[in-house]
Write a structure and sequence with these properties.
The protein has helices spanning 6-38, 41-62, 66-78, 86-116, 118-127, 130-133, 140-150, 154-176, 182-191, 194-210, 219-228, 230-253, 256-270, 274-292, 296-332, 341-366, 371-419, 423-430, 434-454, 458-475, 481-490. By secondary structure, the protein is mainly α. The chain has two domains: 1-228, no CATH class; 231-494, no CATH class. α8 packs antiparallel against α10.
Length: 494
């Protein structure tokens, strides 16, 4: 049993996790920018299609198990003195994911070769290496990372991910000094994960040896995982369809230039996803343990405070991007993507419902409400596919981006309705200051619109609006720093 105060552990993990995530996503940003700037827009469109095909293939091996495994490993660690299930749970999960990874890789290669040609099939074959070694494709390596995350050591996982991201950026930078081709970009995208994977294997070997954990396979455990995770599995497949359908439908119904504009903007903004992932990754294991011990009040305070802070940060980012999108696109992607600035604005505001949904889904899974994820992703996949088929040809990248925003917004409404059926989640949502959130959003938006109307420079408008929002959030109590400090100090040791 740990004697380190919970506040101290959370602060240390959160700080480390944020820094490593910032470093890792910063390196991913740099790498994605190098690829977008080095390849011509047609090759970059092909690169995006390859990534989409790899991701769609991976969904047959992903199964959406990661949140469930974190929860199961956390429970197994807490109960190992009486009933040690750590070895059988880890061994069973690893074997299943390995077999499914091989099958999914073969399927992806065959489908890509038949539909898109042998050259694309070879690129997809290179890309499927991520099924085994990548921390961004949640398949084989994700099982090992779930075990580490369940220990409350999310910072270790993110540290290794940051190492891979640094390798990704460094290799692309070095290669671009010569001639970065489509093939070399896909190879670097796939194989840059080897350093972190090797170190993760070494760490896990030490942990298994020290704790005398014996890996084994149990058919009943496998059946239980498949059965319990079925809503997550269906949900993850639907989420993958939602994320990747845009690229493939644009490729089929529009032009490579629309595909590249959408892909560049999407990857540029997808890096923001690390923020809700870090917050939820830190909070969820503690949330599970607090609920397990019946400490519902502490669980509610911890999660409500985290969600409020996350939503405030999301609005701050969206306001900045609303004013600075053209500058951001020009600086990061170059003049060839000048037509993508509106997409960046839309993705910036899309981050607000994405952050809310990501956090609530993680907590819902921790509270045993896996079906929420299935309902949410069903809405996302259905609206995205149907909407994209309607708007891709006439409206291109802007149309499919707005469809994606609409799908996520509808999905958030579904999540709220489902959360009201759970006592723990209902208490969290009721603790959020929703009226103040709406007011804090309308005020800076009005100021930004006024400054844009009178012709104030976008840089000045962005800084003034973001500063106004931050000041209003503190003055109105939307973000209460004293409450945050007192809550952390008031959390007792385990």
């Amino acid at each position: 049993m740990s004697t380190v105060p919970l506040a101290q552990r959370l602060s240390k993990v959160a700080a480390g996790g944020f820094l490593y995530s910032l470093l890792g996503n910063g390196m991913i940003y740099i790498g994605q920018i190098i690829i977008a700037r080095s390849l011509d827009r047609i090759d970059y469109a092909t690169f995006s299609v390859v990534v989409a095909l790899v991701s769609l293939s991976a969904m047959f091996a992903d199964l959406g198990w990661t949140p469930l495994l974190v929860k199961r490993f956390a429970q197994a660690e807490a109960d190992h003195v009486t009933t040690d299930q750590r070895g059988v749970l880890l061994g069973t999960s690893l074997l299943i994911k390995f077999v499914l990874s091989v099958a999914a890789a073969i399927l992806g290669i065959v489908v890509a070769s038949v539909i898109y040609g042998a050259e694309t099939g070879v690129l997809v074959m290179v890309g499927t290496a991520t099924f085994f070694i990548s921390s961004r494709v949640l398949v084989f390596r994700a099982v090992l990372e779930s075990f580490v995350r369940a220990e409350g050591a999310l910072d270790k996982v993110l540290r290794l991910g940051a190492l891979d991201a640094c390798a990704f950026a460094f290799l692309l930078f070095a290669w671009s000094s010569f001639d970065l081709t489509l093939t070399s970009a896909v190879a670097i995208y796939s194989l840059c994960h080897l350093p972190g994977f090797v170190l993760l294997l070494h760490y896990m070997n030490q942990v298994i040896s020290k704790r005398e954990i014996r890996l084994s396979y149990d058919r009943s455990v496998a059946k239980d995982l498949f059965r319990t995770a079925l809503p997550l599995t269906i949900g993850m497949c639907l989420l993958t369809v939602h994320n990747m359908a845009d690229t493939l439908i644009l490729e089929a119904l529009s032009t490579p230039y629309q595909v590249s504009a959408y892909a560049a903007s999407f990857r540029l903004m997808a890096g923001l996803a690390f923020l809700p992932a870090v917050v939820a990754g830190v909070v969820m294991p503690e949330f599970v343990k607090l609920l397990h011990r019946g400490e519902h009040d502490r669980a509610t305070k911890l999660t409500a405070l985290s969600l409020q802070s996350l939503l405030t940060l999301a609005v701050f980012i969206a306001l900045l991007l609303s004013a600075l999108a053209p500058i951001v696109v020009d600086v990061l992607l170059g003049g060839r993507y000048a037509d993508a600035w509106l997409l960046v604005v839309i993705f910036g505001w899309m981050f607000l419902p994405v952050a809310f949904a990501s956090f609530i889904i993680e907590l819902g899974i921790a509270a045993g409400r896996q079906r929420m994820f299935g309902y949410y992703t069903a809405i996302l996949a259905a609206v995205t596919v149907v909407g994209d088929l309607i708007v891709a040809a006439p409206y291109g990248a802007v149309g499919v981006t707005l469809v994606k925003f609409l799908a996520i917004a509808i999905g958030c409404v579904v999540l709220v309705l489902q959360s009201m059926k759970s006592g723990a989640l209902k208490d969290v949502l009721k603790s959020i200051k929703w009226r103040k959130n709406v007011l804090s959003l309308l005020l800076p938006l009005s100021v930004l619109g006024l400054m844009s109307y009178v012709g104030v420079a976008s840089v000045i408008a962005g800084v003034v609006t973001a500063t106004l929002f931050a000041g209003w959030s503190l003055w109105s109590g939307l973000v209460d720093l004293d409450r945050i400090a007192s809550l952390l100090k008031g959390i007792t040791t385990r």
